[in-house]
Every structure is written in structure tokens, then in C-alpha cells.
Specification:
Length: about 450
């Protein structure tokens, strides 16, 4: 009888081992949502990267949620409402995912990941909320100006380069403008008040944020408003011209004027470099006047409800440009098909960085990249809780035209147009913007 018990115990143990082995060998499914996947038929670089990941990791199956491909925002809202968020997903900013309790704290997962140390410190710092790491920087881009050097040359000016001084930039915008001859200096002035303070004061970031408060009452912010007025009212800005004037420069939107080769400087992000590189003009990216670099990150998040956090992180990391394995594969695919990798590398590997810039067709991005480790700031909208409310939507008690209690964004726009004196309202909008930030997240209900 004792011998029979031993045999039964051995059989039971063997069965348990077998079942455990089956569990370990079964395929794990990771649902993924991102806005850069394109269609199945297009089979772009992102979908090819997913396929390569599954080849290398046959026990992890990545399931693309195609609902997000057709309407990302609607699908995100529906999945959050029904508590069925994808295991890995993109979102436009960190603060919303954390405040809505969507994102998993991955501090323990990345603690011993050697690739995590590749991430530049300014980007790594942005992944924290309340001491937790809740975001994975999948890629980074630069904000700044693209320059049509042909327009500058036609105006007797030298090519613009990264690190251009603020004074030289303003001079070039003005001297490149000759509307009757089919040239104008600037496409659109709408971002000047956001970047100007950081270009003239290293203590400020985007929209005067200094890490703890806005500084909209500062001289730098007022000067940015005045520069906007000066360029618009002086007819150095395409977007503010009348229709007959625009017709001399190509007509239509500032994009049409740019494509017609009439505009010297156009503000955009390096994610759009492919569109610019296709044009036949001598175009370069010069970044921000003053030489500081404004970084715009994209983030991936692990859902708080994921049942497979380790596998989800393994996949998210592979899709991100701080992973040497993932970025190497991305470059390999791009070179084989003559595709453009627009996201800036975060790897600490000289060979991969050189390979990346060998693929880049746009002049100037390498120079901005070389400077970005020294003097950079992150676009505040990506990382600051309540930024959209404080920058655009918080109500004031200021009347603009027929609108009482105009929103703060409309008040700033009116100041840029000279409809209200910035000196009269600077202290007030500074107080309101900082009040808005302090009462977040209650303001989500406004």
C-alpha cells in the first residue's frame, strides 16, 4: 500500500510538471493600439516591426486592435469606458493616462533593464509621475523651423543653420520678404509666443514653464507677443496676408505657399521631414532660434489591466528607439526598402546612430541632435497635467470683442493681434494659468 502511494505521488508530480510546462509553452497574446500603424494593405514599417518581433518571440502574439487604426480617439474612449484597454497603447500625453488610472507603474520592470539607461536624462525624467515610472518613450522628435535656403539666396542672404541667433532669424524673416517678387519670410507666427521665452531665457521651457509655474507676466513672454504683432502687421507672415497678396506667393494656405517655394521659414516637427525632403528646393531643418532644442516625445503605456506585464514591456521596448535590438531591426528594414525613419534615436550606440543619419535626407537634423544633449526642453503639453486647460481653455473675466469671459487661449491670440494690450493683462492671465494648473485634475470637469 505504501509503495502504491509513492507511485501515485510520483504520477501526480509528473502530471503537475507537465501541466506547468504546457502553461509556459503556451502563446501569450498582447493587444496593441497605436496611431502610426497604417492599414493592413499598406504594411508599413510599424507593422513590419511587429511581424519581426513575433518571429524573434514566437510565444508572444501581438494582436493589433484595428478599431484604433480607423478612429483612435473614439476607440480609446470606448475601451477605457469598458475597462478593456489594450495591453500596450499610445497616448498623446502622460498626465491623462495616469489621472485616469490607465497606466501601469513599470518602475520594477525597468530597474534592471540595461537599455533603459540609453534614454537621455531629460526624456527619462519625463516618464515619472508622483515617483512612479508610468510611460515608455517610444520615439522623440524635434520642434523647430524648416528653411527654404533658395528663398534666402534669392534675397541675397546666406543659408540658415541650426543654432541661428534670434536676431539673425528675425533679420532673415524680414529681409527675405519681397511680396511683389514672390517671397515672404515666415509661414505662420502662431507658435512664437510659445517658444520665444525659452529662446531668450534658459530658465523657461515651452510657454514659459519653469518646472513649477508659468511666467506669462515675464518680459520674455511680452516680447514674444510683440514680435508676433510686428511680423504679422509688417506683412512678413504668409498666413496673415490677404487673398490677393497670397496669390502672388502661390495662393491658398501657408502649405501651398511653402510648396510653391515662396516662404523662407515654416514651423513644424521633424516627424514631417519626409514631406519636406520630397520638395525640389534646398531645404534644411534649423530647429529653434537661439539654439535650444524643443523635444516632442511619443510615449507607449502598459495598461494597468494587462495580465502579461513582462511580455508587454518586452514588446513595447522593441518598438522604441532606445532598444538597440529594436532600433537595429528598424534600420535594417528601412534600408532594405528605402524607407524613412523619422523618429530620432535614443540608443547609446555610435554605429547605429551613424547608420540612422546616413538614411536621413534632411539637412540640419544631425546638428540639432548633436546639441540636444546639451541644451533642451520638452514640449510642455506632453508631460504637464492640465496644460491644455491652462494654455487654451481656462475661462478668464476678460472680454474679447463680443465674448465675455473669453478663454485664455483666445485672450492670448487677441493680444498677438493687438486687440488687447499684453501689458494690461499679463499679470491676470499668469495668475489664471497658474491657478488652473494648481486645481488640476478637478478642472477636467470644467
Amino acid at each position: 500500500m505504501q509503495q502504491m502511494k509513492r507511485i501515485l505521488l510520483l504520477l501526480t508530480a509528473s502530471l503537475l510538471v507537465g501541466l506547468t510546462g504546457c502553461s509556459k509553452s503556451s502563446t501569450v497574446e498582447i493587444r496593441y493600439a497605436a496611431w502610426n500603424l497604417g492599414t493592413v494593405e499598406q504594411n508599413g514599417l510599424e507593422r513590419q516591426m511587429i511581424a519581426e518581433f513575433m518571429k524573434e518571440n514566437p510565444k508572444i502574439k501581438i494582436v493589433i486592435d484595428e478599431n484604433f487604426v480607423t478612429d483612435y480617439n473614439q476607440a480609446m474612449s470606448a475601451s477605457a469606458e469598458n475597462n478593456i484597454l489594450p495591453d500596450v497603447f499610445m497616448y498623446s500625453n502622460i498626465s491623462t493616462t495616469d489621472e485616469n488610472n490607465w497606466s501601469l507603474d513599470i518602475s520594477d520592470i525597468v530597474e534592471y533593464d540595461s537599455d533603459w539607461s540609453n534614454i537621455p536624462e531629460i526624456i527619462k525624467a519625463s516618464t515619472y509621475v508622483k515617483g512612479k515610472i508610468v510611460a515608455i518613450p517610444s520615439g522623440i522628435y524635434f520642434y523647430g523651423y524648416f528653411c527654404n535656403n533658395d528663398v534666402l539666396k534669392a534675397s541675397g542672404l546666406a543659408d540658415a543653420t541650426s543654432g541661428i541667433t534670434l536676431d539673425s532669424f528675425i533679420r532673415d524673416v524680414k529681409e527675405a520678404t519681397a511680396i511683389e517678387e514672390g517671397r515672404i519670410g515666415l509661414g505662420d507666427s502662431s507658435y512664437i509666443c510659445d517658444w520665444y521665452p525659452a529662446a531668450t531665457n534658459d530658465n523657461y521651457g515651452w510657454f514659459t514653464w519653469d518646472g513649477g509655474k508659468f511666467n506669462l507676466h515675464s518680459q520674455e513672454f511680452r516680447d514674444g507677443i510683440r514680435l508676433t504683432q510686428e511680423l504679422d502687421q509688417g506683412k512678413y507672415t504668409y498666413a496673415l496676408l490677404n487673398d490677393s497678396e497670397k496669390e502672388l506667393l502661390g495662393g491658398g494656405s501657408d502649405w501651398e505657399g511653402w510648396n510653391a517655394g515662396s516662404i523662407a521659414f515654416k514651423f513644424d516637427g521633424t516627424w514631417a521631414q519626409n514631406d519636406y525632403s520630397k520638395l525640389s528646393y534646398d531645404i534644411s531643418f534649423i530647429g529653434m532660434p537661439g539654439g535650444r532644442t524643443c523635444v516632442v516625445p511619443d510615449y507607449l503605456f502598459l495598461s494597468k489591466t494587462t495580465e502579461h506585464p513582462e511580455e508587454a514591456y518586452q514588446f513595447a521596448k522593441f518598438m522604441s528607439t532606445y532598444s538597440e535590438e529594436g532600433f537595429s531591426k528598424r534600420l535594417e528594414l528601412a534600408k532594405a526598402q528605402d524607407l524613412l525613419v523619422t523618429t530620432i534615436p535614443m540608443v547609446n550606440n555610435i554605429d547605429l546612430i551613424e547608420q540612422y543619419f546616413d538614411l536621413i535626407k534632411m539637412k540640419g537634423i544631425k546638428e540639432v541632435y548633436d546639441n540636444f544633449y546639451c541644451n533642451a526642453y520638452i514640449e510642455t503639453a506632453k508631460v504637464l497635467p492640465g496644460y491644455a486647460m491652462a494654455r487654451w481653455n481656462y475661462e478668464t473675466n476678460i472680454t474679447i470683442g463680443l465674448t465675455k469671459n473669453a478663454k485664455i487661449g483666445d485672450v492670448i491670440a487677441a493680444a498677438c493681434k493687438g486687440q488687447v494690450n499684453i501689458d494690461d493683462i499679463a499679470e491676470q492671465i499668469n495668475y489664471l494659468a497658474n491657478t488652473s494648473i494648481q486645481i488640476y485634475p478637478q478642472q477636467l470637469n470644467n
